[in-house]
Amino acid sequence: MDRLAGRGIIVTGATGIAAASARRFAAEGASVAIVSRTSSSCEALAGEITDAGSRASAFTADLTDVPVATEAIEAAIAALGRVDGLFNVAGGSGRRMGDGPLHELATEAYEATMRLNATTHVTVTAPVLRAMLAPEPDGDGSRGAIVNMGSVLATRPVPVLFATHAYATSKGALAALTTTAAAYYAPHGIRVNMVAPALTISRMSERAQADPATQDFSKRKQPLAGGFIAAGDVAEAATYLLSAESRAVTGQIIAIDGGWSVLPVGE
């Protein structure tokens, strides 16, 4: 249980996949800094990890507010003393902001959803990269690793159930950011990858979890999971991508989807 021993890792978000990942990283020996908009969730998670004997700190920030987010990330880096990894999880559905089919999508809803899911990744990642670039690389030439949060919906849409075009666009933008950043920073010893989950148990998916049609769909479309995927399955993939085990892996988008991307919709 030491795959991340001695590493400082920032996780954005404090529930669902973010919470499962923060716990997993800490169990693997990392010091974890959790940055989330909701102070109660953030502090509770950090306290839980600390009580279990690992090192964790909590920082509350609205990541859509650039100055506030930048200050929080810089404080998290300072608390860790070094930053070796970043898991960009924070984001969410744009439904509450009016996301939907393109012909019904207001500009304000589109921009708000992009800000929530794509702009936040840019805001968070920039100070992390600056911190990673500052010191000399370690013995194997590595300066750190970044994992972004994608979605299977960006490339494998299901319009009957998920006609959220701004959300899919935001995740598609992150895929482009992942590959272009990976290419740019590879010579500097920084790896950038993405995980792209399908239907996963989280706070964001509560509406879908309660919908019988979506439940039935998940069992047919995600047979390896028998339905909704456990958040811990995504955390395992992120752990691999942040560890030395993936030292030769960059620019990749790994689907954690229980079979979704290789099965037709009707299966």
Task: Describe this entry's structure for a reader.
The protein has 267 residues and is α/β, with parallel strands linked by helices. It has a single domain, classed as NAD(P)-binding Rossmann-like Domain (Rossmann fold). It has helices at residues 16-27, 39-51, 66-80, 107-133, 165-185, 206-209, 212-221, 231-242; strands at 8-12, 31-36, 56-60, 85-88, 144-149, 190-197, 253-256. It is globular and about 50 Å long. It starts with 7 loop residues before the first strand and ends in an 11-residue tail after the last strand. 49% of the residues are buried.
Provide a quick synopsis of the model.
This protein is α/β, with parallel strands linked by helices and 267 residues long.
The counted number of beta strands is 7
Arithmetic mean of pLDDT? 94
Quaternary: single chain
CATH architecture designation: 3-Layer(aba) Sandwich
Shape: globular
Gap between N and C termini, in Å? 38 Å
What is the H-and-E element order? EHEHEHEHEHEHHHE
Strand count, sense and closure of the main sheet? 7 strands, parallel
Q: Could you tell me the strand content as a percent range?
A: 5-15%
Helix content: 40-55%
| The level-1 CATH class | Alpha Beta
Write the CATH homologous superfamily.
NAD(P)-binding Rossmann-like Domain
**Which spans of ≥5 residues are poorly predicted at pLDDT below 50?**
none
Whole-number total of structural domains? 1
Keywords for this entry:
single chain; 267 residues; alpha/beta; Rossmann fold; 7-stranded parallel sheet; 14% strand
